Amino acid sequence: MNISCGFNERLNSAASIVLSLWFASSGLAAVIGNAVVLWLFYKNQSLRTISNRFLASLCVADFLAGLVVHPMFIAIRVFAQPQRGNILLDVIHMVWIHSTAATVFNLSCVSVDRFIAIRFPFRYQDIITKQRCCAVIIIVWLISLFLPFSWILVNATTAEEFWFSLSFIFFKLPITVVTLCYIWIFTVARKQASRIKTENLQNSNEMNTPVRVIKNYKAIKTIGFVLGVFFVSWMPSLVVSVVEYVTANDKCFRDKLLYVVRPWIVAVGLTSSAINPWIYYFRNEEFREALRRCFHWFPLNVTPEFPLERNRNQRM
User: Fold this and answer.
1) Cβ 66 vs Cβ 267: under 8 Å
2) Is residue 260 within 8 Å of 11, Cβ to Cβ?
3) pLDDT tens digit string along 164-206?
4) What are the pLDDT digits (tens) for 54-101?
5) Model confidence pLDDT, tens digit, residues 14-36
6) DSSP character for 198?
7) How much is the pTM?
8) Which string of DSSP letters, residue by residue, matches 51-85?
């Protein structure tokens, strides 16, 4: 086998320029979009619900990805392209592990929160308290901060096994659990919302159970879009990790995946950080209203999904 074949596998000039523009534009969009969401969360008391606290934590992960991870990938993976064993490659791997862990675990918290809201509607406020919410968020960030240091214990012979195991922790286990929970709660919530929409809610004078179910149904659909974007954008990375594990003995092919294929895969995955704020805008009426109060020029001509509820809120 030609030992030097992998060292010649590098991104060409055109690919480097395209990737740089991709990372720069998606990173800038992630920073601006998530910064606006976090600012609105801070300025508007009505947005500071327990469920939105989990969303805010997810926005922090996406904001840091755009602020730190995107520029580092431009500098290290696109331009420097260090060889295996270089400290710069170790740094970018640790940063990538932290960013992915923070996103996946926060997304899992958001989905589990919605599961509890649908499964236990009358006990939700007792189960998910503000203190427990903050404790879970702190635990998630502590795990995502300390998990990258596991890369220090990895040597060249166990790198593929490490990434394969990491793909199980980041994707297979949490996404499988979250997807199964989401399918169940979406089915139940859809049936409840369809039944309740046929009833007359205009005579209600307080936030009763039917209206709460409708709001939960809308929130679940929003999280479903976020989960779908994450699943589609990061699935190629999971596939590449499996391929790297299977072809661990082929050094040339492994290096081609590392230097040529993986930068494009990571670019697709990190783009989800820039898409999520737009999902909140188009799917969350309270967020649109808060955005209108702060930025009067921002377009808000998106048709609400449940007009009866909006008319009821306007009369209150």
Assistant:
1) no
2) yes
3) 666 667 677 777 777 777 777 767 766 766 665 665 444 444 4
4) 889 989 999 999 999 999 999 888 888 777 777 888 788 788 888 888
5) 888 999 999 999 999 999 999 99
6) T
7) 0.77
8) HHHHHHHHHHHHHHIIIIIHHHIIIIIIII-PPTT
Q: Which residues contact 259 (CB under 8 A, 6 or more apart)?
A: 6, 9, 10, 11, 81
Q: Angle 243-102-185 (CA atoms, 0-180°, nearest 5)?
A: 90
Spatial distance between the Cα atoms of 125 and 159, rounded to a whole number of angstroms = 44
Radius of gyration of the chain (CA): 22
| Alpha-helical segments (H) within 152-302 | 159-167, 173-197, 209-246, 251-256, 262-270, 272-283, 285-294
Which H helix or E strand runs over 141?
Answer: helix 130-146
* Residues in contact with 219: Cβ distance below 8 Å, sequence separation at least 6, in sequence order: 51, 114, 117
Other Cβ atoms less than 10 A from the Cβ of 218: the count is 19
Pair of tokens at residue 93: 């791997």
